Amino acid sequence: MGANEIEAPDTNISYADAIQYWTGVPATVDGVLGGFGHTTLPKTDVKGSITFIKRVSRLYPEFEESGKKFGTRGCDVGAGIGRVTRDVLSKFCSKVDLVEPVVPFANQISTELERKNLLDRLGNVHQIGMQDFSPEPGKYWFIWCQWCLGQLKDAHLVNFLERCKTGLQKDGLIFVKENNTSTLMDEFDSTDSSVTRADLSFRRIFDEAGFELLQVEIQQGLPHGLYPVRSYALRPKKDKNL
Prior knowledge:
By secondary structure, this protein is α/β, with parallel strands linked by helices. It is about 35% helix and about 25% strand. The chain contains eight helices and nine strands. The protein has helices at about 15-25, 30, 40-60, 60-70, 85, 105-115, 155-165, 200-210, and strands at about 75, 95-100, 120-125, 140-145, 170-180, 185-190, 195, 210-220, 230-235. It has a seven-stranded mixed β-sheet with strand order 3-2-1-4-5-9-8, sandwiched between helices. Helix 3 packs across helix 4 (about 60-70). The longest helix has 19 residues, at about 40-60. The protein starts with 14 loop residues before the first helix and ends in a 6-residue tail after the last strand. This is Alpha-N-methyltransferase NTM1.
């Protein structure tokens, strides 16, 4: 690297350091939400996510038709203890597969769903990192990624999204809900070895991975002092030669 070159924040990411950090975090809602589990954050987040999925379904009827024709199996990536599956995805999906590499979190998933009598919605739990996850072709109506993509380096995130593209059924979508920086710059956090990306960085990565952005929305009503949070609905780009 030249003397005037600035090291990209994502080059500092260590997957081993991230696993070590999160393994030491309590497998609770408060733990996975960084101490905000007893604030308005959980309910506000859930309400916003449900509203966003409903809005996308209304604006893009082919997505809703896809679920009726091919099934409504979903995938929760970076699932933690299953909070999003329990409170959001279970309202839309007949079954949800979960991807979570942190063993204490993955072991808590069935308990969280059982508390709400939702074990019938539990599919497979893949205890692997996103960088190693390859979904079965055409398996999912939608794939949900929330507060987890910052753990991946840029190149690995592009590759991950490309693999997820093959995992979607016809007219299926990917939903991303992530923190954004308030500037044009990405920021590295050494605490959990992650990167918080700027909105423009996400848009560049989505484009590079072969997706078009259908809808984007800023989550309202979050506690003060947090990063802005955006929800993105992504559709694979259409082949112009078809």
